[in-house]
Amino acid sequence: MNRDRLPWILLALVMVAGGVGWYAGHDDSLPSEKHPEETIFEVAELADKTNIQAAFALARSPIDAEESAQSVLAQFEGRQTFLCAYSLAKPVHCGAGSADNLAESIRGAAKELATKNVDLDEARLKLDFVVWSQPTELSLKESDNWSVAGTIGYFAQRDDQYAFVTPAEVIGLGIYDENEGMGRGVSKKMLAQTLRDRNEALFEPQPAFSLTRFRATSWVEVTDGGGDVVRLYRTHKFEWDSLEADHLLQRSVLAADYLLAATAPNGKIRYHYDPRDDQSESSYNLIRHAGTIYSVLMAYQRTGFEPYRKSAEASIEYLFKKSRRDERQGPWGGGDSMYVVEGSSIKLGGAGLGLLALVQHMESTGDREKYLDEARAYARFLVSQQKEDGEFHSYAPQELGGTAKDRVSIYYPGEAILGLARMYVVDPDPLWRDTAVRGANWLIKVRDAGKSHQQLANDHWLMIALSYLYEETRDPLYLSHSLAIARAVQYQQEKNRFRYKAHRDYRGGYYNPPRSTPAATRAEGLVAVLDTCAIAGEECAYVREVLAETVIHMNLSQYTPELVWWMPNRAVTLGAFNGGIYDVEVRNDYVQHAMSALLGMERHLAQSQERELPGGPSWSRKIAQSEGFPGLEQQEIKGLRRWTEEIRPTTAWEVDDGANQAPETAP
Q1: Phi/psi at 68 (nearest 5 deg)?
Q2: Which long-range contacts (C-beta less than 8 Å, at least 24 apart) are formed by 639-644?
Q3: From CA 140, how far away is CA 492, in angstroms rounded?
């Protein structure tokens, strides 16, 4: 690139009103820290929602906007402004503007957008106001540090030709690559291709343009045609979520509705979906399938919405078709056994979560007989896989008399213990309880023996299982180990705290980068620890605090109605949870764990208000031989599903003969 011919526009000049170049009246110096505190990028007038609503009004009517809106915005410093219109029609259309005051910057972007013949009544507008910028180079051999993905945008310019990529688009368009180079990063190759797609003139006869990195304050309209607005950070909301019980229920229903629409007539549940290109992968995971049934039935128990039950029962039948029965024996018993067939070995977790799903069906519907035979067969398989010392084989041989793999799963034993512990509540055979107790004792006294909170793994399935075993046995070992794992989770969360100032959305998360499912599974486990604490009569305030922070982080990853502005198929994506703040893809287990955590936290918040909701070991014991939860009133369900009904076509599960119809959005 000939940098003598192509000086950095940012450093060279101030453009006139309505122009496209950079207005350099503010400090563009690069902070010396690798990850500066984000507060230095805050601009007061751009964080004020009243100002922003005036900005969108001006963007929609650059000629006829009310004088009050213009006068308010005209008092603020001009800055590079990007205005894009997102609708179900493709491609996205954008305009850019820069001037000596904010009103004229917005007006310039709006006038350019107006030349694209966009139907604004069918579009959501998004505004990005540049607050920091720095010249950079387009080296195809290097990639930007992955941690800035979604907070940094790119602007390329040559003379009067330009193209740009906003910060959110770096993630939404797949420019951020989890496999870039030696790890993850912002792919300059993909960035170059995107810029070329947007303006071929920058690359002809050869690539020759200035490139600028920038940070922006970003806002987007909540609905097509205008209305309320929300501030963005990466592709999610800037503001922290409300943890009120009603709000958590709303999120749970959105998640359950996603899974409802993702379930095909044969019961198979969409496994892996990429909203960037509206494509589903062909891979599948039957253990996660079973876990998803469990969570959908939790949603049915809470709401009483019959389509959830219908879809879950179809998914149970699908699981049965992928299961096999034969005679299996172990030191503690067995017999006619049922297990899930997937891969070369039999995974203990398949029968564990299969059993859990069936027990949840019994509890949620009150029907103890429909799947009792299969539940007992799954349970007998689990018994057959327990060694004399209480440890379980994680991977059994498919052939009778074969040798189990030495490989050990962290989570399968907890899944088995939970399934058996809950089975004992609805089918009180001492074999189920005793097998669960032996398994839990081995994990605590052998696997986890002597481990500090820095060393203990987040075994969320065990945390949930211990709450049921403690309800049954009152063994103090189960309380103490539950609290030990909770302390380990607290330690893991604290390890990320120093990153919060540089990356606000790391708050409450786990690992680097934080992902949604580690947060969701920990939240599920912490909900169970609170159940155990309640049975023991202990407050466990620190567990509540860690749970609240965890759910705040987890909720950043849900595609709520205001966050589906950028993807091509909003109907499919609505309500799903993605992989994390950098990962837009969806898997059914991401949704399943998050929904389970939401329902659990809602339940504990309701308890603090002296309202009883279904779920947890005390509830299971209480209703084992009685009526279940009545669910929600029809009008309340309709209100909670208003966004689903507005955005997504009706599924087969919502009509009387749904078994004979194909859901429009299912895989």
Answers
A1: -60, -40
A2: 640/249, 640/250, 640/253, 640/303, 641/253, 641/257, 643/254, 643/561, 643/574, 644/253, 644/254, 644/257, 644/574, 644/575
A3: 36
**Residue 196 · residue 144 · CB < 8 Å:** no
Place of tokens 């590079």: 80
Peptide bond into 307 cis (omega under 30): no
Cβ atoms of 515 and 600 closer than 8 Å: no
90: amino acid identity, one letter: K
Distance, CA of 398 to CA of 665 (rounded, Å): 36
621 CB-near residues (< 8 Å, 6+ apart): 425, 471
Lookup result for tokens 């947060």:
519
Task: List Cβ neighbours of 452 (8 Å cut-off, separation of 6 or more).
Answer: none
Residue 165 β-bridge partners:
154
Instruction: Examine residue 513 and say whether the peptide bond preceding it is cis (omega within 30 degrees of 0).
Output: yes
Phi, psi of 237 (to 5 degrees): -75, 145
pLDDT of residue 625: 65
CA distance 388 to 366: 35
First CA to last CA across the chain, in angstroms? Answer: 47
Maximum Cα–Cα distance across the chain = 84
Mean pLDDT in consecutive groups of 10 residues from the start of the chain, 667 residues? 28 29 34 65 97 95 72 94 91 94 96 94 97 82 73 94 96 80 71 94 89 96 94 97 96 99 98 96 98 99 98 99 98 98 97 99 96 99 99 97 94 99 98 99 98 96 99 98 98 94 95 96 99 98 98 98 95 98 97 99 96 96 80 97 96 70 46
Strand partners, 641: none
Contacts of 133 (CB under 8 A, 6+ apart): 10, 22, 28, 80, 155, 212, 213, 214, 215
Half-sphere exposure of 242 (CA within 13 A, CB side): 8
Handedness of CA 232, 235, 237, 238 (dihedral sign): negative
Q: What is the pTM of this model?
A: 0.92
Q: How far apart are CA 583 and CA 250, in angstroms?
A: 23
Q: Name the amino acid, one letter, at 586.
A: V
At 293, give phi and psi (nearest 5°). Answer: -55, -45
CA distances for 367 relative to 97, 159, 426, angstroms: 63, 72, 10
* Cβ-contact 350, 290 below 8 angstroms: yes
Angle at 525 between CA 519 and CA 531, to 5 degrees: 140
Please report, for residues 269, 529, 661, 665, 667, the alpha-carbon distance to residue 657 in angstroms, rounded to integers and kept in the order given: 19, 42, 7, 17, 19
The structure tokens listed for 645 are 């009904």
pLDDT at res. 293: 99
Measured CA to CA, the distance from residue 400 to residue 334 in angstroms comes to 13
> Residue 45 has what DSSP assignment?
H
Handedness of CA 256, 259, 263, 269 (dihedral sign): negative
Instruction: Return the pLDDT at 262.
Output: 98
